[in-house]
Write a structure and sequence with these properties.
71% of the residues lie in helices and 0% in strands. The protein has helices spanning 5-28, 32-47, 59-75, 79-105, 109-130, 143-146, 159-179, 187-205, 209-225, 229-248, 257-262, 267-283, 294-301, 315-323, 325-349, 357-372, 387-412. The radius of gyration is 22 Å and the shape is globular. Mean pLDDT is 82; it is low at 252-258.
Length: 413
């Protein structure tokens, strides 16, 4: 055991310090503690012998995102609101780069993937006590159930944010379970199954209709990718019936003009907010209005009445209104590259053992987050804004490993 300790330290101490510091900054920063951990971890990774770092494709786009984030500190109407969000975005990108380099030299995808399943499981079990569930929202769950959950956070998590987190994480466990049906005696099989069931149940508790739709699409996509075609057809039929029922029994036509502004759960409200976002983007196309100042700018300049649920309720409009159109293009170019290369990798290896279910879970989770971003803010600008970057790091790392293998094979020819 003593001889293994230096190896374990060499493998994990640096990256654990980086990830731990980044998580701390997202939850409690800006602070010297989080940045100190990150700097220690980066220095540890760089100075240790035999470290080989691979150049990350599209890293220039990530650098430009940080540049535009720093620029928003200059243009913002409220520095105290913008600074923490700029801090979170910058350190999340640093975390992605560090993890990608670590994956490029370490075969730790399964370990990391199960770490994300564990995180989702822990959040699922804590959800009844940390989410401020919306009352009188309708649906199959009575409000009396939520009243049994005592909140333990002074600043609880919004249910739509938790819905997005569950959307990103449940595919890991579900894909692992469906692809490892012959390993029912393996504890990892049951851990993945339990995690995915808990996450889907918490997603159901959030009563996020956008989350429901994205989860349904995700389950159908998973069934298709894993060649469960008959189940996919059956599930698609049930989903179509459910959508028709939702449309038939939709009560949005009874909502008054006053309710349109006060009820942030309606689609009519989103149309109004999206129009406000387009106005901000039109007036601040190159720099945005500053991260986190969407509501503040809307109230001061357009005007727009204050409401409790901040943001553009659309990931892409939010990024453009926060940082400008160029920043949105940089973001989409990096995310689009990850999605495209990840799909190519799946097509290439789908019939081989090299196609890790953890990698496929990350790919589906990222796709679902982007779909949910069409009608909601997802986790952008929140305390959990690092989550998409943690998932993109796994995809980016796997792509880097494959590129290194391909380059090595060409060198032998």
């Amino acid at each position: 055991m003593p001889t293994d300790l230096p190896i374990l330290i060499k493998k994990y101490l640096g990256i654990l310090a980086v990830v731990g510091g980044c998580l701390f900054e997202n939850l409690f920063g800006p602070s010297m503690i989080g940045w100190g951990l990150v700097l220690f971890g980066l220095i540890f990774e760089w100075v240790w012998p035999n470290k080989n770092f691979t150049k990350i494709p599209k890293i220039q786009t990530l650098g430009m995102l940080i540049v535009f984030a720093l620029l928003s500190l200059w243009v913002t109407a409220d520095f105290e609101i913008t600074a923490p969000q700029v801090n979170s975005l910058s350190i999340s990108i640093i975390c992605l780069v560090a993890l990608t380099c670590w994956f490029a030299q370490e075969e730790a995808f399964t370990l990391y993937g199960f770490g994300l399943i564990g995180l989702g499981t822990v959040l699922s079990m804590a959800s009844p006590f940390i989410i401020e569930f919306q009352q009188n929202k309708g649906g199959f769950i009575p409000d009396s159930l939520y009243e049994q959950f005592p909140l333990i956070l002074s600043n609880p998590v919004h249910p739509n944010i938790m819905a997005t987190i569950m959307l990103m994480l449940f595919p890991f466990g579900l894909i692992y379970t469906l692809s490892q049906m012959e390993k029912t005696k393996d504890y990892k099989f049951w851990a993945a199954l339990l995690g995915s069931v808990l996450m889907l149940f918490v997603l159901f508790l959030t009563r996020s209709r956008g989350g429901y739709l994205a989860a349904a699409i995700g389950i159908g996509l998973i069934l298709i990718l894993l060649s469960f075609r008959r189940l996919a057809v059956l599930f698609g039929g049930l989903l179509s019936i459910a959508i028709i029922l939702l449309v038939v029994f939709d009560n949005s036509s009874t909502i008054t003009a006053v309710d349109t502004l006060s009820n942030t759960d309606t689609f009519a409200f989103r149309l109004i907010v999206w129009e406000l976002a387009l106005n901000i983007i039109r007036d601040f196309p190159f720099t945005g209005a500053g991260m986190g100042t969407f509501n503040l700018v809307g109230i001061r300049l357009y005007p727009f009445p204050p409401f409790d649920d901040p943001g553009a309720h659309n990931l892409y409009l939010q990024i453009a209104s926060d940082l400008g159109i160029p920043a949105l293009i940089f973001y989409l170019s990096f995310v689009g590259y990850i999605i495209y290369q990840g799909w190519n990798l799946f097509v290439k290896n789908k019939n081989h053992k090299e196609m890790s279910p953890i990698f496929l879970g990350a790919w589906v989770g990222l796709v679902l987050m982007l779909l949910h971003g069409l009608i909601d803010l997802t986790v952008w600008g929140t305390r959990m804004s690092i989550m998409p970057w943690l998932i993109m790091a796994l995809l980016s790392g796997k792509i880097m490993v494959e590129r290194a293998h391909l380059k090595q094979q060409r060198g032998h020819l």
